[in-house]
Design a protein that fits this description.
- This protein is of the alpha+beta class and about 90 residues long.
- Helix content is about 35%, strand content about 20%.
- It is built from three helices and three strands; from the N terminus they run βββααα.
- A three-stranded mixed sheet has the order 1-3-2.
- About 5% of the residues are buried.
């Protein structure tokens, strides 16, 4: 699949390392966010400490399912996952 636009800001400097691609496809174009796997796992590790591990992306991460088993991995409950990521508030 050809991706029209790729944002690799969170993968730069990690070329050759495992990556996660979050892809959005509409009728005209597709967009991808390319993330170093380490950043993605850090995000999920932080979320798992403050959120309930139920039937969402965190339960799959905790059970080592999803992208550990198959590629590409389709997140079934994307709205819930986006809400979870959006609710994460980083305070430094």
């Amino acid at each position: 699949m050809k991706t029209d636009k790729i944002n690799d800001t969170y993968y730069a400097g990690f070329e050759g390392e495992p990556e996660i691609r979050v892809i959005y496809i509409n009728s005209d174009e597709s967009y991808a966010l390319k993330i170093w796997n380490g950043y993605f796992e850090i995000l999920l590790d932080c979320l798992i400490q403050i959120e309930s591990v139920q039937s969402n992306i965190l339960s799959e991460y905790d059970a080592h399912e999803g992208w550990y088993e198959e590629s590409p991995w389709e997140v079934k409950n994307i709205r819930e996952t986006l809400h979870l990521f959006d609710s994460y508030n980083i305070k430094i």
